[in-house]
Design a protein that fits this description.
Blueprint (H helix, E strand, L loop, with lengths): L1 H8 L4 H4 L8 H7 L3 H4 L7 E7 L2 E8 L8 E8 L9 H16 L4 E4 L6 H9 L3 E8 L2 E9 L14
Parallel strand pairs: 3-4
Antiparallel strand pairs: 1-2, 2-3, 4-6, 5-6
């Protein structure tokens, strides 16, 4: 958890996670990011994974508590350093996590909500198969809701018309 806390609160990506500038203390952070995210003890409540590239950790990807009512789950991702962005690490990590969730956790829909100003992130999510379904305001910031649904056989539907 210490590395994840550092990425979330003291990295090139911090301003995207804490746009209001209210950076949590480690104690506050632990209240939101409970131990099950890191030890796998309660997979229905969420799980966090390190993204490792070229033998070193470059970020994290996670899913939050699963909504069994509609078999959906929200995802989050951090690529900590700007120097590690635009290399495909995020798209690949999201694709792998989505595949796992569809196959092993019986998820039918994954979603993510980046701010609209993170065009680079939106493009990476589209590369992983996510599509914008709508835009909304959150605390005065324009955000986009992006989704990726499972097909009938449990594999992701990936629409890469631009590729």
């Amino acid at each position: 958890m210490p590395l994840f806390y550092e990425w979330a609160t003291r990295s090139d990506s911090t301003s995207y996670w804490y746009e209001d500038g209210n950076i949590p203390t480690q104690e506050q952070f632990r209240k939101d990011w409970k131990i099950h995210y890191f030890d796998g003890s309660e997979p229905e409540k969420g799980r966090c994974y390190a993204i490792v590239a070229e033998g070193r950790p470059v970020g994290q990807v996670n899913y939050n508590e699963i909504n069994r009512g509609n078999s959906s789950v929200e995802l989050d991702i951090i690529i900590a350093s700007d120097s590690d962005k635009n290399k495909g690490y995020g798209s690949e990590a999201l694709s792998m996590l989505v595949e796992y969730l569809f196959r092993n956790m019986r998820i039918r829909k994954c979603w993510i909500e980046p701010t609209a100003r993170t065009a680079r992130a939106v493009k990476a999510y589209e590369k992983a198969g996510f599509r914008i379904t709508h835009k909304f305001l959150s605390g005065g910031t324009e955000c986009v809701h992006m989704e990726l649904s499972a097909s009938e056989n449990g594999r992701p539907i990936v629409r890469n018309e631009a590729s």
